[in-house]
Amino acid sequence: MASTIYRLITIVSLLSLLHCAYSAAQHRFYLRLTEQPFVNLPADVVAQTVISLIALIYGTSFLANPFLYIKQDQHPERTCDEALNCPSFITFDNRTKAMSPEFSMLRALKQQQRSQENVSRGTHSGRVSEAVAPSETVDSHE
Amino acid sequence: MGDPTNKSSKDDKKNDECYNTAAITNNIEALEFGRTCQSCAAGMAAGILGLTGFHGFILYFVSVAIQALIWNVKAQGNWLSYFPERNSLTWSHGNGLLTFVLLWVFFYGMVHVY
């Protein structure tokens, strides 16, 4: 997307520069016909040339490859916490959970869900609810 | 003269840093492309404006300054994290000047002589 904009800037300024060349050539041709001496170009042609020169430099230097970070660490902006992060040692299911005030609420919610599931499964067959029951007893002892 | 020990330790510190060669090559390609296009554009502008003698070279060096400014904007101000040294003003002038003179003469001839 950005590259399209820079390509557009480059093409437009190049065309503008060529248009300037044509205008300057026509000015010289007019001076030759009217037999006037050449002093300098009209100000609008000069202004258009300078503006399209700057636009062309801008467009082409952003059209080139984007600059890459040259140091070996390719992610210089990350913090210590991110760089030294070692996810395999994070335990999400530990005893601290039981001490937090949210835990009782969560457990109540879970039990509610489970009982709802059991009710819905119980309508299909009795054996499934028997198979689920032992795990439920383990959970309640936690 | 100064003290040579301090200087050598500074050099060692500089050499200790590891650089990613592929990234440096990529950045230098970008610089070379930018310099070539900038000297083409400056040559065309100098030819169109009908500059002769030193005025043309002044235009070239003004465009070099503009290019260096744009490169520093592109590098977001920290040039040294993209290049090993500060060379935004000095990169590849031999190539650039030859390209510049070629297009300068060509456009001067096309616009002002014929």
UniProtKB/TrEMBL annotation, chain A:
<dbReference type="GO" id="GO:0022890">
    <property type="term" value="F:inorganic cation transmembrane transporter activity"/>
</dbReference>
<keyword id="KW-1133">Transmembrane helix</keyword>
<dbReference type="GO" id="GO:0000139">
    <property type="term" value="C:Golgi membrane"/>
</dbReference>
<keyword id="KW-0732">Signal</keyword>
<keyword id="KW-0333">Golgi apparatus</keyword>
<dbReference type="GO" id="GO:0072546">
    <property type="term" value="C:EMC complex"/>
</dbReference>
<feature type="compositionally biased region" description="Polar residues">
    <location>
        <begin position="111"/>
        <end position="123"/>
    </location>
</feature>
<dbReference type="GO" id="GO:0031901">
    <property type="term" value="C:early endosome membrane"/>
</dbReference>
<comment type="subunit">
    <text>Component of the ER membrane protein complex (EMC).</text>
</comment>
<feature type="signal peptide">
    <location>
        <begin position="1"/>
        <end position="23"/>
    </location>
</feature>
<keyword id="KW-0256">Endoplasmic reticulum</keyword>
<keyword id="KW-0967">Endosome</keyword>
<feature type="transmembrane region" description="Helical">
    <location>
        <begin position="47"/>
        <end position="68"/>
    </location>
</feature>
<comment type="similarity">
    <text>Belongs to the membrane magnesium transporter (TC 1.A.67) family.</text>
</comment>
<keyword id="KW-0813">Transport</keyword>
<comment type="function">
    <text>Part of the endoplasmic reticulum membrane protein complex (EMC) that enables the energy-independent insertion into endoplasmic reticulum membranes of newly synthesized membrane proteins. May be involved in Mg(2+) transport.</text>
</comment>
<keyword id="KW-0460">Magnesium</keyword>
<keyword id="KW-0812">Transmembrane</keyword>
<dbReference type="GO" id="GO:0005886">
    <property type="term" value="C:plasma membrane"/>
</dbReference>
<protein>
    <recommendedName>
        <fullName>Membrane magnesium transporter</fullName>
    </recommendedName>
</protein>
<dbReference type="Pfam" id="PF10270">
    <property type="entry name" value="MMgT"/>
</dbReference>
<dbReference type="InterPro" id="IPR018937">
    <property type="entry name" value="MMgT"/>
</dbReference>
UniProtKB/TrEMBL annotation, chain B:
<feature type="transmembrane region" description="Helical">
    <location>
        <begin position="48"/>
        <end position="71"/>
    </location>
</feature>
<protein>
    <recommendedName>
        <fullName>ER membrane protein complex subunit 6</fullName>
    </recommendedName>
</protein>
<comment type="similarity">
    <text>Belongs to the EMC6 family.</text>
</comment>
<keyword id="KW-0472">Membrane</keyword>
<keyword id="KW-0256">Endoplasmic reticulum</keyword>
<keyword id="KW-0812">Transmembrane</keyword>
<keyword id="KW-1133">Transmembrane helix</keyword>
<dbReference type="Pfam" id="PF07019">
    <property type="entry name" value="EMC6"/>
</dbReference>
<dbReference type="GO" id="GO:0000045">
    <property type="term" value="P:autophagosome assembly"/>
</dbReference>
<feature type="transmembrane region" description="Helical">
    <location>
        <begin position="91"/>
        <end position="111"/>
    </location>
</feature>
<dbReference type="GO" id="GO:0034975">
    <property type="term" value="P:protein folding in endoplasmic reticulum"/>
</dbReference>
<dbReference type="InterPro" id="IPR029008">
    <property type="entry name" value="EMC6-like"/>
</dbReference>
<dbReference type="GO" id="GO:0072546">
    <property type="term" value="C:EMC complex"/>
</dbReference>
<dbReference type="InterPro" id="IPR008504">
    <property type="entry name" value="Emc6"/>
</dbReference>
